[in-house]
Specification:
The chain is an alpha+beta fold. Helix content is about 35%, strand content about 40%. Helix 2 packs across helix 3.
């Protein structure tokens, strides 16, 4: 199977330093402020969210197809919660919100397949032992 790579460089101390993350065609800056406050730039949690939203959307589409439905569109947002505890920061929860256009499917089957995709998505499987993953799935159009 494929091996994927990403790279990060951090220069300086935690609060005043800055860094760059690179993967594929994306390259973006990150800082203490972009991670723990409201500063400009990206952060590792956004990248986890993008990976999770992308993985879930593909897994959901695959599961719908396997069940005999032809999805037209699956759009997912992942909100990653970074929480400070006694031992430091950790990702505690990820909220997946998805909306899909799937002709000919009823609401109950749609929800069943969405839940299966959430549990079967490789990124969900990676994150579930340490984070709660919620799913709000809406059948559109």
């Amino acid at each position: 199977m494929a091996v994927r790579q990403a790279e990060a460089v951090w220069e300086g101390n935690l609060r005043e330093g800055n860094g760059t993350m690179k993967f594929g065609t994306f390259s973006g800056p990150y800082t203490f402020a972009s991670r723990f406050e409201s500063g400009e730039g990206t952060n590792p949690e956004e990248l986890i969210g993008a990976a999770h939203a992308g993985c879930f959307s593909m897994a959901f589409s695959a599961e719908l197809d396997r069940a005999g439905f032809a999805p037209i569109r699956v759009q997912t947002t992942a909100s990653v919660h970074l929480t400070k505890g006694e031992s430091g920061f950790r990702v505690t929860q990820i909220d997946l919100v998805t909306e899909a256009v799937v002709p000919g499917i009823d609401a109950a089957k749609f929800q069943e397949i969405a839940e299966g995709a959430k549990n079967g998505c490789p990124i969900s499987q990676l994150l579930m032992p340490g984070a709660t993953i919620t799913l709000q799935a809406t059948l559109a159009g």
